[in-house]
Design a protein that fits this description.
By secondary structure, this protein is an alpha+beta fold. The chain has 2 domains: 304 residues, Bira Bifunctional Protein, Domain 2 (BirA Bifunctional Protein, domain 2, 2-Layer Sandwich), CATH 3.30.930; 93 residues, Anticodon-binding domain (Rossmann fold, 3-Layer(aba) Sandwich), CATH 3.40.50.800. The strands form 3 sheets. Strands 1-5-6-11-10-9-7-8 form an 8-stranded mixed beta sheet.
């Protein structure tokens, strides 16, 4: 059988892991500079923790873990006979792989509330799983990097999270990044104005497709969902919303003048944008996008989405929002929360495509000692140990193979220096150091060797 891995998953070679570690370190440094603390949660949760938190589509994409042993007797065979496949599937499973980090975090907060200091700021970098169709930038197993604050309803948290996005993308040297912002209350206000409060989800799902299917496509979808011509006519000003963020907010305020919840959303966004712009951004551009409706099932206020740099064909590389009611599902009410996520794997692909990983990221072994047999091995290994103590990445070729093979190994691993201690060098108390790039070599006395190598780096 030819070895393979499941679709939507990946193996990572050493060079890829080095790049991923670099990205992870940049994120960790930024999170900790902003006062976020690291936590970890299990890879899988109880099904009841996850199901129903992401809407029907999200539930469909959750990987369920099959029960075993006696628990299989709980299978709902009647659901299978009546073709209720979702109910049957749920009866076979009591656990599921986490779909994101936000819902497990809400569970974590409720479970550990007596051990936490609020407002509690956490960051988390761990894998999540979704039974989605694999494509470029979309995987079934991927990493999420979240930063959240719970226990404060202050809009200064949203301001700080915008700054955090700017900080990270500036550190990564990714330019032309656009942070799209909206507010759930604005969407609710629009639905109220056009008389579609009971069809908020249908309305926002269609509106979210404006950039993909155009104005006519959105209108046709809304008509198919039972929206009236009158509602569509009222919606027209939003289809052509244009201008700067402040100009868009002014237009929205006028459109939503008859909706108190809508005006509240406009004022919240205005506060966030004015303060972010006053503080200034280094890389980030911010735009109001009234079609943005991600996470509608749990976001209650501001909504964020980060678009990739212009010219990079990929979905969003970050997003988040305020979710004031999320912990209520676990029995803890009145616990405000807001957070953002960084699309780790997609950001990696952006860095790779734009060649933005620093050259030093792929540093491997700096010097290798060739193996000339057991008589010279102790001297080589002692020097090797001293170099490692000085922070030099060094290794010893394990077998006394032909020199051509050993040098080929060093070349294939891009090791810049090779140390040679043969019988003759041992008698003369010296080491030959070969520069693999230049092809030159130089002799050093054994006592001076470690310092000489340190000087090279």
């Amino acid at each position: 059988m030819k070895p393979s891995i499941p679709k939507g998953t990946r193996d990572f070679l050493a060079t890829e892991v080095a790049k991923r570690n670099y990205l992870k370190q940049v994120l960790q440094n930024a999170f900790e500079n902003y006062g976020f603390q690291p936590i970890e949660t299990p890879s899988f949760e109880k099904s009841e923790t996850l199901l129903g938190k992401y809407g029907e589509e999200g539930d469909r994409l959750i990987f369920k873990i099959l029960s075993n042993g006696e628990k299989l007797k709980k299978a709902d065979l009647n659901a299978l006979k009546s073709n209720q496949l979702a109910a049957f599937s749920n009866s076979l499973s009591e656990k599921a792989l986490r779909y994101d980090l936000t819902v497990p975090f809400a569970r974590f907060v409720v479970q550990h509330q007596n051990e936490l200091v609020f407002p509690f700021k956490r960051y988390q970098i761990q894998p999540v799983w979704r039974a989605d169709r694999p494509q470029h930038g979309r995987f079934q197993e991927f990493f999420q990097c979240d930063a959240d604050v719970v226990g404060s309803d202050s809009l200064w948290q949203e301001v700080e999270l915008c700054q955090l996005y700017d900080e990270v993308f500036t550190q990564l040297r990714i330019e032309n990044i656009c942070l799209k912002v909206n507010n759930r209350k604005i969407l609710a206000g629009i639905a109220e104005i056009i008389g579609a409060e009971s069809q908020l989800v249908d309305f926002t799902v269609a509106l979210d497709k404006l950039d993909k299917i155009g104005k006519e496509g959105v209108e046709n979808e809304l008509l198919s969902k039972g929206f009236s011509e009158e509602a569509l006519n009222k919606l027209q000003p939003l289809m052509v919303l244009d201008g700067s963020p402040n100009e868009k907010l002014d237009q929205l305020a006028l459109f939503l003048s008859g909706s108190s919840v809508g005006i509240s959303g406009v004022e919240e966004l205005r506060f966030v944008l004015q303060n972010v712009m006053s503080l200034g951004t280094k890389t980030l551009e911010i735009d109001v996008d009234v079609t943005l409706a991600r996470g509608l099932n749990y976001y209650t206020g501001c909504i964020f989405e980060v678009a990739p740099p212009e010219g990079v064909k990929m979905g969003s590389i970050g997003g988040g929002g305020r979710y004031d009611d999320l912990t209520a599902g676990f029995g803890m009410k009145n616990m405000s929360g807001v957070g953002v996520s960084f699309g780790f794997d997609r950001i990696y692909l952006v860095l790779d495509e734009l060649n933005l990983f620093p050259p030093y990221v792929n540093r491997g072994t700096q010097i290798i000692f060739l193996n000339f047999g057991n008589s010279t091995a102790p001297t080589s290994v002692k020097l090797l140990q001293k170099l490692r103590e000085e922070g030099i990445r060094a290794e010893y070729y394990p077998d006394s193979s032909k020199m051509k093979k050993q040098l080929s190994y060093a070349n294939q691993k891009n090791i810049p220096y090779v140390a040679l201690i043969g019988e003759e060098e041992l008698r003369e108390n010296k080491v030959i150091l070969k520069d693999m790039e230049k092809g030159s070599q130089k002799a050093f006395s054994l006592p001076d060797f470690v310092q000489s190598v340190k000087d090279l780096f």
